[in-house]
Amino acid sequence: MDRQNQKLFEQNYVKFREHIYWYIYKKTGKKELAEDLTADTFIKLFEHPEVMRDRDENGIKAWLFTVSRNKLYDSYRKKSVSKGKVDVEDEIFEIIASDDVDYIGELISEENSKQLIQSFSVLSVEEKEILELRYKEEMKFSEIGEIVGKKEGAVKMLLYRAMEKLKEELEGKI
């Protein structure tokens, strides 16, 4: 790798390492696995310097999330390790209860949090992931589409339907 590519790699590593690490850690709950998969993700970036040259910052970020997601799924397949629904629902609850989503965050109180967590059972894994990428990782629809392998319009529709499911599920409960 030439000097310019090495510098680009270092800049992207510094910029995105924590995002990728926390994305994986929240999915696995295992520090060592998150560290290993984060390292594997950046090794792949190192092996493909054209990604850093040919894409803008958002494109690189989307590429890294796609690779980390694939590494995570490979890890699940190899080790038959998966998290239960409750953990995924807790993760989504944290996203929606965060300051990033004011319109839902205002609805949440201590006594309502359990209702909200239970309401996530109506969402598919894909809908939960799209919610996370949109509201926690603050990604654009086009970036999410690249990660999950769908067109931008399909991502928007999935997000809209997920929010409608949540609204319907929560109606009268919160």
TrEMBL record:
Query: Which GO terms are recorded in the biological process aspect for this UniProt protein?
Result: DNA-templated transcription initiation
* Record keywords, A-Z: DNA-binding, Sigma factor, Transcription, Transcription regulation
Task: Extract the GO molecular function terms from the UniProt entry.
Answer: DNA binding; sigma factor activity
Extract the InterPro entries matched here: RNA_pol_sigma-70-like, RNA_pol_sigma-70_dom, RNA_pol_sigma70_r2, RNA_pol_sigma70_r4, RNA_pol_sigma_r2, RNA_pol_sigma_r3/r4-like, WH-like_DNA-bd_sf
Q: Where is the RNA polymerase sigma-70 region domain?
A: 15-80, 121-168
Please provide an example of a Pfam family that matches this protein in its UniProt record.
Sigma70_r2
Q: Which residues belong to the signal peptide in this entry?
A: none
Which family is annotated?
Belongs to the sigma-70 factor family. ECF subfamily.
- This protein is called RNA polymerase sigma factor
Lineage, top ranks: Bacteria, Candidatus Dojkabacteria
